[in-house]
Amino acid sequence: MFLKNIKINNFRNIQNEDINFSKNINIIYGDNGNGKTNLLESIYYTTSLKPIKKKHKLIHLINENSKASIIKSTFENNDYKEIIKIAITPEKKALIYNQNNNTNIQSYLHKFKSVLFTPDDLMIIKGEPQKRRDFFNKAIFHLNQYYYSNLIEYNKILKTRNKILKDIAEGDKRQLAILEIINEQFTDISLKIYQNRINYLINYIPILINTVNQLSKKDFLPYLIYKTDFNYKNRDDFLSKLKSKQKREILYKRTLTGPHFDDYKIITNDKEIKFFGSQGEIRLFTLAMKIAHIIYVKETTNNYPILLLDDISSELDSNRKEFLFNFLKTIDSQIFITTTAINHIPKLENMDFLEIKNGKTNWK
After folding, report:
1. How far, in Å, CA of 220 to CA of 350, rounded?
2. pLDDT recorded at residue 269
3. Are the CB atoms for 347 and 154 separated by under 8 Å?
4. CATH topology of domain 120-304
5. Is pLDDT above 80 for 313?
6. pLDDT over 90 (residue 300)
7. What percent of the chain has pLDDT over 70?
8. Tens digits of per-residue pLDDT, 348-359?
9. Quick one: average pLDDT of 200-207?
């Protein structure tokens, strides 16, 4: 499946564009501030229903001279088409998929997979644990549609549990009996999430290690560790430890442990790269993490996700850039790459160039 056409109305600085894409490599180039990332984001939004930057609200996606934005996309897969229309207002977004406005969002997002590379990806390693959880949560969902439901259920139970802890702290001791029931539910969904994460890592880690070793000429000994305070393998132990923290949680009026506190530690030569890695090494591992996921998706589903690379080539040294583009040569995926200068991009076969200037596009 590939994105054949996109029609964009009033998405950021792109007011009215109708673009047909190559099913191979699409290079989007132009000076900064002309709309390269906005065009890339319209594609990303179609496949994820989220902006590139999480902090951006719906109103930020709409052209300042308009009250709404519309993105209409046509995907082709052999002899059939998938047509998607997304309307965005400051208050809400609406999705119409193949003329159906009651689309199951979980199924939709699982079907239209994309992997985004941006200069901010360094924060996956350098940033807070939530950055790593977000990365792996999306990666796991690409291969396990029901993981999304597990996360929704977990967050729902977590919210209820936090409310109960707050009520108890404020004197409602009747909630202690309800907390016992919620602890059982919290334990069960936590074990499900843990197992989904470990199942992903079992196959992902060897691919990651191999990718790091191919990317680097150094003798790295890379590994990835799932960091948690709990023994998820034993339900009784988990429940017992949860109860042992109850007094402290009541004091703080919130849940202080569980999958929403767990982390992924990236280790090389027995040191955590977040704290001891150079900027170049962190960039290498970030790139390797995403490439390893792409390979894993292909091995599992026999299809590559759409790849979206936002000015990533300017962030890489010559060796890693060469590795990345050699990798891109070998995969049967539709690829979109933005750049300020064409000479930043190694020339490959099946590469088409789209210039963008002031939100207007022109194939070269």
Report:
1. 34
2. 86
3. no
4. Glutathione S-transferase Yfyf (Class Pi); Chain A, domain 2 (1.20.1050)
5. no
6. yes
7. 99
8. 888 999 999 999
9. 97
DSSP string, 81-116: EEEEEEEE-SS-EEEEETTBSS--HHHHHHHS-EEE
Phi, psi torsion values for 322, nearest 5 degrees? -60, -45
Q: 125-146: b or e for each residue (b if 16 or more CB lie within 10 Å)?
A: beeeeebbbebbbbbbbbbbee
Three-state SS at 362:
strand
Residue written as token pair 């070269």: 364
140 Cβ contact list (under 8 Å, min separation 6): 147, 196, 197, 200
- pTM of structure: 0.93
Per the listing, tokens 């919210």 go with: 159
CA angle, 134 then 39 then 106, to 5°: 40
Work out the pLDDT band at 281, boundaries 50, 70, 90: confident
End-to-end Cα, the chain, rounded Å: 24
Residue whose C-alpha is closest to residue 342's, from 31, 1, 104: 31
User: What is the per-residue pLDDT for 317?
Assistant: 79
d(CA 271, CA 277): 8
In the numeric block, the tokens 């969902």 are attached to 141
Predicted pLDDT of residue 314: 73
Q: Which pair of tokens denotes residue 49? A: 């229903």
Residue closest to 95 by CA, chosen among 35, 159, 47: 47
CA-CA distance, 310 to 280, in Å (whole number)?
A: 18
Residue whose pair of structure tokens reads 């090389």 in the numeric block: 268
Q: List C-alpha distances in Å: 162 to 95, 190, 252, 272, 286.
A: 32, 15, 10, 32, 34
Dist. CA 268–CA 329, nearest whole Å = 28
pLDDT of residue 173: 92
Token pair recorded at residue 281? 């090494």
